[in-house]
Amino acid sequence: MSRRYYMNTSVQEPPLDYSFRSIHVIPDLVSEEPRTGLRPVKHSKSGKSLTQSLWLNNNVLSDLKDFSQVVSQLLEHPENLAWLDLSFNDLTSIDPVLMTFFNLSVLYLHGNSIHRLGEVNKLAVLPCLRSLTLHGNPIEEEKGYSGVTKADRTTAEVWKRMNIKLKKGQNKKDIL
Protein backbone atom coordinates (compact mmCIF):
# COMPACT_ATOMS: atom_id res chain seq x y z
CA MET A 1 0.00 0.00 0.00
CA SER A 2 1.24 3.49 -0.72
CA ARG A 3 1.35 6.21 1.87
CA ARG A 4 -1.08 8.31 -0.13
CA TYR A 5 -3.59 9.95 2.20
CA TYR A 6 -6.52 10.31 -0.14
CA MET A 7 -10.10 9.93 0.89
CA ASN A 8 -13.13 10.69 -1.22
CA THR A 9 -15.36 11.72 1.66
CA SER A 10 -17.93 13.33 -0.60
CA VAL A 11 -19.36 9.89 -1.34
CA GLN A 12 -20.26 7.82 1.70
CA GLU A 13 -21.06 4.35 0.49
CA PRO A 14 -22.60 1.81 2.85
CA PRO A 15 -20.17 -0.77 4.26
CA LEU A 16 -19.29 -4.06 2.72
CA ASP A 17 -20.86 -6.10 5.53
CA TYR A 18 -19.68 -9.63 6.27
CA SER A 19 -20.82 -9.61 9.90
CA PHE A 20 -22.43 -12.71 11.42
CA ARG A 21 -21.24 -14.99 8.60
CA SER A 22 -19.25 -17.54 10.70
CA ILE A 23 -16.12 -16.65 8.71
CA HIS A 24 -13.03 -18.53 9.96
CA VAL A 25 -10.40 -17.34 7.48
CA ILE A 26 -10.09 -14.13 5.45
CA PRO A 27 -10.00 -15.84 2.01
CA ASP A 28 -13.58 -17.05 2.67
CA LEU A 29 -14.73 -13.47 2.06
CA VAL A 30 -14.18 -13.88 -1.67
CA SER A 31 -16.82 -16.61 -1.94
CA GLU A 32 -19.13 -15.25 0.78
CA GLU A 33 -22.06 -13.00 -0.06
CA PRO A 34 -22.06 -9.75 1.98
CA ARG A 35 -25.16 -8.76 3.92
CA THR A 36 -27.47 -6.32 2.19
CA GLY A 37 -28.47 -3.09 3.85
CA LEU A 38 -31.00 -0.36 3.13
CA ARG A 39 -28.79 1.10 0.41
CA PRO A 40 -26.89 -1.15 -2.00
CA VAL A 41 -23.12 -0.87 -2.19
CA LYS A 42 -22.01 0.57 -5.53
CA HIS A 43 -19.52 -1.36 -7.62
CA SER A 44 -16.97 -0.38 -10.27
CA LYS A 45 -17.02 -1.77 -13.80
CA SER A 46 -14.62 -4.46 -12.60
CA GLY A 47 -17.18 -5.57 -10.01
CA LYS A 48 -15.24 -4.35 -6.98
CA SER A 49 -16.97 -2.43 -4.21
CA LEU A 50 -16.58 1.36 -4.06
CA THR A 51 -17.03 1.53 -0.29
CA GLN A 52 -14.45 2.66 2.29
CA SER A 53 -15.93 0.50 5.08
CA LEU A 54 -15.53 -3.20 5.75
CA TRP A 55 -17.42 -4.96 8.53
CA LEU A 56 -16.12 -8.35 9.62
CA ASN A 57 -17.55 -8.31 13.14
CA ASN A 58 -19.15 -11.26 14.93
CA ASN A 59 -17.24 -13.95 13.07
CA VAL A 60 -14.58 -16.44 14.21
CA LEU A 61 -11.42 -14.91 12.74
CA SER A 62 -8.25 -15.77 14.66
CA ASP A 63 -5.83 -14.03 12.27
CA LEU A 64 -5.76 -11.72 9.26
CA LYS A 65 -3.68 -13.92 6.94
CA ASP A 66 -4.14 -12.80 3.30
CA PHE A 67 -6.02 -9.66 4.40
CA SER A 68 -4.31 -7.27 1.92
CA GLN A 69 -4.81 -9.59 -1.03
CA VAL A 70 -8.48 -10.24 -0.24
CA VAL A 71 -9.27 -6.56 0.43
CA SER A 72 -7.68 -5.77 -2.95
CA GLN A 73 -10.04 -8.29 -4.56
CA LEU A 74 -13.10 -6.82 -2.81
CA LEU A 75 -12.49 -3.05 -2.89
CA GLU A 76 -11.80 -0.91 -5.93
CA HIS A 77 -9.66 1.39 -3.76
CA PRO A 78 -8.30 -0.68 -0.85
CA GLU A 79 -5.92 2.15 0.04
CA ASN A 80 -8.99 4.23 0.99
CA LEU A 81 -10.23 1.76 3.61
CA ALA A 82 -11.31 4.07 6.42
CA TRP A 83 -13.56 1.97 8.67
CA LEU A 84 -12.77 -1.60 9.67
CA ASP A 85 -14.91 -3.48 12.16
CA LEU A 86 -13.18 -6.60 13.50
CA SER A 87 -15.08 -6.69 16.79
CA PHE A 88 -16.25 -9.95 18.34
CA ASN A 89 -13.77 -12.29 16.68
CA ASP A 90 -10.94 -14.41 18.12
CA LEU A 91 -7.99 -12.14 17.31
CA THR A 92 -5.14 -12.44 19.84
CA SER A 93 -2.96 -9.66 18.44
CA ILE A 94 -3.09 -6.58 16.23
CA ASP A 95 -1.84 -7.82 12.89
CA PRO A 96 0.88 -5.67 11.25
CA VAL A 97 -1.14 -5.70 8.02
CA LEU A 98 -3.47 -3.12 9.58
CA MET A 99 -0.61 -0.62 9.69
CA THR A 100 -0.49 -0.64 5.87
CA PHE A 101 -3.94 0.94 5.61
CA PHE A 102 -2.95 4.54 6.29
CA ASN A 103 -6.45 5.95 5.81
CA LEU A 104 -7.98 3.88 8.61
CA SER A 105 -9.86 6.31 10.82
CA VAL A 106 -12.20 3.88 12.64
CA LEU A 107 -10.96 0.52 13.92
CA TYR A 108 -13.17 -1.65 16.10
CA LEU A 109 -11.31 -4.42 17.91
CA HIS A 110 -13.54 -4.84 20.96
CA GLY A 111 -14.64 -8.30 22.05
CA ASN A 112 -11.51 -10.12 20.85
CA SER A 113 -8.73 -11.97 22.71
CA ILE A 114 -5.95 -9.37 22.64
CA HIS A 115 -3.76 -10.02 25.70
CA ARG A 116 -0.80 -7.64 25.40
CA LEU A 117 -1.23 -3.90 25.89
CA GLY A 118 1.96 -3.37 23.84
CA GLU A 119 0.03 -4.52 20.76
CA VAL A 120 -1.82 -1.20 20.75
CA ASN A 121 1.44 0.73 20.21
CA LYS A 122 1.61 -0.63 16.66
CA LEU A 123 -1.36 1.57 15.74
CA ALA A 124 0.60 4.79 16.39
CA VAL A 125 1.70 4.82 12.72
CA LEU A 126 -1.87 5.32 11.49
CA PRO A 127 -2.13 9.08 10.93
CA CYS A 128 -5.91 9.19 10.41
CA LEU A 129 -6.98 6.88 13.25
CA ARG A 130 -9.61 8.75 15.29
CA SER A 131 -11.73 6.00 16.80
CA LEU A 132 -10.41 2.78 18.32
CA THR A 133 -12.32 0.32 20.49
CA LEU A 134 -10.59 -2.30 22.62
CA HIS A 135 -13.00 -3.03 25.47
CA GLY A 136 -13.85 -6.66 26.08
CA ASN A 137 -10.28 -7.84 25.47
CA PRO A 138 -8.05 -9.43 28.15
CA ILE A 139 -5.80 -6.33 28.00
CA GLU A 140 -8.40 -4.59 30.17
CA GLU A 141 -6.92 -6.55 33.09
CA GLU A 142 -3.37 -5.32 32.41
CA LYS A 143 -1.92 -2.62 34.63
CA GLY A 144 -1.84 0.67 32.75
CA TYR A 145 -4.91 -0.03 30.62
CA SER A 146 -7.57 2.62 30.92
CA GLY A 147 -10.62 3.50 28.93
CA VAL A 148 -11.28 7.08 27.87
CA THR A 149 -13.87 8.73 30.10
CA LYS A 150 -16.07 11.75 29.45
CA ALA A 151 -13.73 13.74 31.69
CA ASP A 152 -10.76 12.66 29.54
CA ARG A 153 -12.56 13.86 26.42
CA THR A 154 -13.36 17.22 28.05
CA THR A 155 -9.74 17.64 29.15
CA ALA A 156 -8.51 16.82 25.64
CA GLU A 157 -10.95 19.30 24.10
CA VAL A 158 -9.83 22.07 26.48
CA TRP A 159 -6.16 21.27 25.76
CA LYS A 160 -6.87 21.36 22.02
CA ARG A 161 -8.54 24.78 22.28
CA MET A 162 -5.67 26.19 24.34
CA ASN A 163 -2.90 24.80 22.15
CA ILE A 164 -4.19 24.86 18.58
CA LYS A 165 -2.17 26.98 16.20
CA LEU A 166 -4.17 29.28 14.02
CA LYS A 167 -3.61 29.32 10.29
CA LYS A 168 -2.96 32.67 8.65
CA GLY A 169 -6.19 34.68 8.47
CA GLN A 170 -8.11 32.36 10.79
CA ASN A 171 -9.87 33.47 13.97
CA LYS A 172 -9.97 31.25 17.05
CA LYS A 173 -13.77 31.45 17.12
CA ASP A 174 -13.83 30.00 13.55
CA ILE A 175 -12.36 26.70 14.72
CA LEU A 176 -14.11 26.29 18.06
Element order: H for helix, E for strand: EEHEEEHH
State Rg.
Answer: 18 Å
User: Can you count the beta strands?
Assistant: 5
The portion of residues forming beta strands comes to 5-15%
**In one word, what is the shape?**
globular
Key structural traits:
single chain; about 180 residues; little secondary structure; five-stranded parallel β-sheet; globular
Description:
This protein is mostly loops. It is 15% helix and 8% strand. It has three helices and five strands. The chain has helices at 67-74, 150-163, 172-175, and strands spanning 16-17, 53-55, 83-85, 106-108, 131-133. Helix 1 links the parallel strand 2 (53-55) and strand 3 (83-85). The mean pLDDT is 89.
Furnish the topology, listing elements before pairings.
Blueprint: E1 16-17, E2 53-55, H1 67-74, E3 83-85, E4 106-108, E5 131-133, H2 150-163, H3 172-175
Parallel strand pairs: 1-2, 2-3, 3-4, 4-5
Could you give a short description of this structure?
The protein is low in regular secondary structure. The protein is built from 3 helices and 5 strands. It has helices spanning 67-74, 150-163, 172-175, and strands at residues 16-17, 53-55, 83-85, 106-108, 131-133.
